[in-house]
Structures are given as structure tokens and as C-alpha cells.
């Protein structure tokens, strides 16, 4: 049954007076599945992508401010910037209740801008801290818990200028730990859950090395990418260790984890043993690069074999600190990729992924793309992506608790289209229906999945794609005083994941700001 047909059926059942039973509080109405106790359902955003107010509150420059202001270089499509973004810094008091009302979420998953809470000389910036405190109090007043991510790619520019931070050995761990300490002290009484960092795979492979398209755009050999990841993992483990000390002292509460991305492999030829084996290699290189160290204390053995000394080494002490440095892992899922053993050599300076496999997403298998294309060149609806990633993390690394940390579908230019062209986003409903079937399957198989965070609560700056790619469940144009309009996909998720009284798929909330 298609998603809209499901909605119609539910509306009919509701009208007939039976939906109350079907849609009782603890049921996913996607086939009446019971969600585990305490399952979190949130929506995600990140600081640079929505806050705007880039130089207010005493905020200092981040690498993304710097990158976006370096115009004429093609860094961001249309030379757009996050200077105003969705103006969330000024609109949060209206936006948060709308997120809750439109989506029915019980969690707001956001990121703290390092540059808004710490001054240029490393001191707490009270005005920036006050914003986050008031924002979290607003979320709580409207029935939402908060998940606070320390780092979503917006490194202070001063650290990049001084030491090329993520690739400079040693000091970044200290700086990140100091920043984490500042955040724990300032916000620890309000944050319900913590995430150390979002997708180091993305910020290291896009920010440093041969394929740079993100800030700081530090081009060089592949070693830079691996050095960045090495330092990010050490910084992560230091922040987790500190969190555990603070928790023992009663200064912070809740759990701490990390969000990681990667595209699960699908064998190019499903009857080829070599292709099936290449899937594990693909997943170890893409997802195990982070999952291996934080669960087992070291990189997956296949990476060491393929890369030798290009892959940095952890000391025994570092391994001990890394091992088990998470309470949960968030898997950020946007696509899968076909894989097959490479026909060429495994390691070269120019290969971003010297993993002895070839991988394809947009390229065909028997003329097929890996999944249904979306408005973004790397985002495909492949109906097992979420399940495959969760299963890999659970089976290969014994991940004890997992969430779907991000998941969403890009629309093309939705921030500019008239309402009748963006609001009926049946393709996004189909995307989320597929995701929720993956969630259901994972729960059935005993995968310890405890949360689902679709991306994103609201339209936002999609990094180097600017505002042209829109993942938002609520649509807004960038800038000040822009109307917010939930799309049908927001109503779909609310209907599936919350109580029956929220089934209002065509009741759009236009919120004028
Ligand atoms: C993820 C990023 C997030 C957003 C989505 C579409 O990789 O973490 O900020 O850009 O992709």
C-alpha cells in the first residue's frame, strides 16, 4: 500500500471511530508495531546551517564563516552564506513549538557552535551560552528533550589559522577537551543527551585531502584525511572520558555518543562471492573507520593491511581510551553504494579510498542507479540502507545501542518554489515510509535501536550546495521574518510516530515570523 493510501485508510478508520485503538500512544501505526520503551523521536539541525547571527553575541569566526565569505571561488553554490541562514538565533522561541506541533517530536537534536560559546582567548562567552540555555529551556517547556552535539564542522577559524587544527597532532585533543569542558559546565544541567561530533568521515574527507569541497578546504594528499580522522577520534575519546568523570561527579547527565556516516555496500553482482566480500571491505573502510576504534580500540584490520603506514597508529594508552568510548552510536543514513573488487591497484596517493574496491552510487548496475534519485547527487532512496548500516554496526562491532542519527531526502530548490510545488512532497513520504520499514525490521531482528532523528526539522544551508538542496520537513526561505510551512512529510511522520490525535495530514501550519 502506498503512503498516501495508508494515510487515507487511517483517516477513514479514524472517522469510523476505530483509529483510537489503532493509534494508541505506544504504537507505530505503520503495521501497528510496538516501539520500545523510551524510544526517542526527534528532528535534527546544526548551528551553521540554521542559526544565522554569524557575528552576534560576541560570536567569533568559524571555518565555515570564513569559507563562505571567500566568495568567487565556487565554495558554496551561488556564493550563498549562512550569515542569516534560517535566523534561528532570533526565531527559536517560535520555531521550537512549531517543530513540536508539526512533527510531534519528543527530542530536539541540535548542535552547539563552538564559536558562539567560547571567546577568541578561550573563555566562556556568556551571551552565547545564554542563547543555548534559553533555547533548551524553551524546548523543555514544549515537551522536548534535547540532544546536544559539540561539533558539527564549525571549527574556530583561529585554530585553523594557527595550527591547521584537525591535522595538527596533539593540540586539537587538548583544545577540543577544553571546549567540551566549557560546554559540560555551562549546559550540563540542561542537555539530556550528548554527541561529541557529527560525521568525522565527512568533515575529514571533504575538509582535508585530495577531495576537498568543505571548509576549511585544505587540499593535499590522502594522508591529511587520515590524520584528521585520527585526531578527531582522539579528541572524541578525550571528550567522552571527561564526560564520564563529570557524570560521576553529578555535573552532567544522560548518555554520550557519536554520529557517523557511510554508505553501506550492496554487491554489484549479488551472486558473486568476491562482490559479497567486497561489501564487508567497503563497510569497514567507510563505517568501520570510526566504529572500529570506538568499539574495539583500533582501526579495522583490513584498513591496516591495505594502507600500511599511511594509516596513523594509536598508542596502547590511546587504544584503551578509545575502546568503548560511547554509550550509543548514531548512524547517519543517506544512500548505499554498489561495490565490486577493484580492477586497478589498491593504494595510490590520489585515491581517496584506497580500499581495494570500486564503488558506485550514481553509476549503473545493468543500467540501474543504486536507488531512487533525489534532488542531490549523492542522496538515493535504496530500501535497505538504514537496516544494512545498523546491522553492520551491531554485528561487526557489537554496538550496544544505536540510533538513526540522521536520515532525509533532498528536494531540489524547494526553498524557492511556490507552496503548491513543495508542500505535497509524496516522494519524501515514500522515503520515510521506506526508512520506517527499516526501523521496524531492525527492531524485529533485535538490533538495539533506541531512536530515530530525521534530517532536518527545517530548510537550511546544505553546505556547499547552498539553499538549492532542501532536506527540511518544514519549509522556510533563508533570511529574516520568513514564513514556516510544514510539508506533508512532516504530517506523515507525526502521524506514524505519535498519538492518533495528531493525524492532520492536510492541516498545514503557516507560521509568520
Ligand atoms: C549530513 C550532514 C548534515 C546535512 C545532511 C544532509 O551529512 O551531517 O549537516 O548536511 O548530511
UniProtKB/TrEMBL annotation:
<dbReference type="InterPro" id="IPR001360">
    <property type="entry name" value="Glyco_hydro_1"/>
</dbReference>
<comment type="similarity">
    <text>Belongs to the glycosyl hydrolase 1 family.</text>
</comment>
<feature type="signal peptide">
    <location>
        <begin position="1"/>
        <end position="20"/>
    </location>
</feature>
<keyword id="KW-0326">Glycosidase</keyword>
<keyword id="KW-0732">Signal</keyword>
<dbReference type="GO" id="GO:0008422">
    <property type="term" value="F:beta-glucosidase activity"/>
</dbReference>
<dbReference type="InterPro" id="IPR017853">
    <property type="entry name" value="GH"/>
</dbReference>
<dbReference type="GO" id="GO:0005975">
    <property type="term" value="P:carbohydrate metabolic process"/>
</dbReference>
<protein>
    <submittedName>
        <fullName>Glycoside hydrolase family 1 protein</fullName>
    </submittedName>
</protein>
<dbReference type="Pfam" id="PF00232">
    <property type="entry name" value="Glyco_hydro_1"/>
</dbReference>
<keyword id="KW-0378">Hydrolase</keyword>
<dbReference type="InterPro" id="IPR033132">
    <property type="entry name" value="GH_1_N_CS"/>
</dbReference>
Amino acid at each position: 500500500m502506498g503512503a498516501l493510501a495508508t494515510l487515507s485508510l487511517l483517516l477513514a478508520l479514524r472517522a469510523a471511530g476505530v483509529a483510537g485503538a489503532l493509534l494508541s500512544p505506544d504504537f507505530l501505526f505503520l503495521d501497528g508495531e510496538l516501539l520500545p520503551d523510551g524510544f526517542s523521536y526527534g528532528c535534527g539541525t546544526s548551528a551553521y546551517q540554521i542559526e544565522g547571527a554569524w557575528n552576534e553575541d560576541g560570536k567569533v569566526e568559524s571555518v565555515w564563516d570564513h569559507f563562505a565569505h571567500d566568495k568567487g571561488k565556487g565554495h558554496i553554490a551561488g556564493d550563498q552564506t549562512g550569515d542569516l541562514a534560517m535566523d534561528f538565533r532570533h526565531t527559536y522561541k517560535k520555531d521550537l513549538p512549531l517543530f513540536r506541533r508539526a512533527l510531534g517530536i519528543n527530542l530536539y537534536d541540535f548542535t552547539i557552535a563552538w564559536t558562539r560559546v567560547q571567546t577568541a582567548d578561550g573563555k566562556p562567552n556568556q551571551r552565547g551560552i545564554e542563547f543555548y540555555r534559553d533555547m533548551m529551556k524553551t524546548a523543555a517547556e514544549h515537551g522536548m528533550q534535547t540532544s546536544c552535539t559539540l561539533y558539527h564542522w564549525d571549527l574556530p577559524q583561529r585554530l585553523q589559522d594557527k595550527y591547521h587544527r584537525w591535522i595538527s597532532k596533539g593540540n586539537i585533543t587538548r583544545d577540543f577537551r577544553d571546549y567540551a569542558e566549557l560546554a559540560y559546565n555551562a549546559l550540563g544541567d540542561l542537555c539530556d543527551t550528548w554527541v561529541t561530533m557529527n560525521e568525522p568521515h565527512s568533515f575529514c574527507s571533504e575538509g582535508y585531502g585530495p577531495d576537498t569541497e568543505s571548509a576549511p578546504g585544505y587540499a593535499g594528499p590522502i594522508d591529511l584525511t587520515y590524520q584528521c580522522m585520527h585526531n578527531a577520534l582522539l579528541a572524541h575519546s578525550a571528550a567522552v572520558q571527561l564526560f564520564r568523570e563529570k557524570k560521576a561527579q553529578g555535573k552532567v547527565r544522560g548518555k554520550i555518543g557519536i554520529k557517523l556516516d557511510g554508505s553501506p555496500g550492496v554487491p554489484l553482482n549479488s551472486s558473486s562471492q568476491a562482490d559479497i566480500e567486497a561489501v564487508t571491505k567497503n563497510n569497514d573502510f567507510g563505517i568501520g573507520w570510526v566504529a572500529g576504534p570506538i568499539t574495539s580500540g583500533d582501526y579495522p584490520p583490513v584498513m591496516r593491511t591495505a594502507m600500511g603506514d599511511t594509516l596513523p597508529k594509536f598508542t596502547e594508552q590511546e587504544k584503551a581510551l578509545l575502546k568503548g568510548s560511547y554509550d550509543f552510536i548514531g548512524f547517519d543514513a543517506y544512500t548505499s553504494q554498489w561495490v565490486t573488487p577493484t580492477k586497478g591497484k589498491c593504494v595510490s596517493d590520489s585515491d581517496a579510498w584506497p580500499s581495494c574496491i570500486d564503488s558506485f552510487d550514481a553509476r549503473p548496475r545493468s543500467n540501474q542507479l543504486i536507488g531512487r534519485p533525489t534532488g542531490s547527487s549523492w542522496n538515493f532512496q535504496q530500501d535497505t540502507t538504514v537496516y544494512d548500516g545498523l546491522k553492520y554496526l551491531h554485528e561487526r562491532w557489537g554496538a550496544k545501542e544505536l540510533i538513526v542519527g540522521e536520515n532525509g531526502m533532498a528536494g531540489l530548490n524547494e526553498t524557492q518554489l511556490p507552496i503548491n510545488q513543495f508542500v505535497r512532497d509524496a516522494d519524501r513520504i515514500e522515503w520515510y515510509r521506506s526508512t520506517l520499514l527499516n526501523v521496524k525490521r531492525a527492531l524485529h531482528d533485535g538490533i538495539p535501536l533506541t531512536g530515530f532523528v530525521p534530517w532536518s526539522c527545517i530548510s537550511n544551508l546544505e553546505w556547499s550546495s547552498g539553499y538549492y538542496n532542501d532536506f527540511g520537513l518544514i519549509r522556510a526561505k533563508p533570511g529574516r521574518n520568513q514564513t514556516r510551512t510544514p510539508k506533508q512529510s512532516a504530517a506523515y511522520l507525526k502521524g506514524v510516530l505519535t498519538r492518533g490525535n495528531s493525524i492532520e495530514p492536510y492541516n498545514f501550519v503557516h507560521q509568520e515570523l
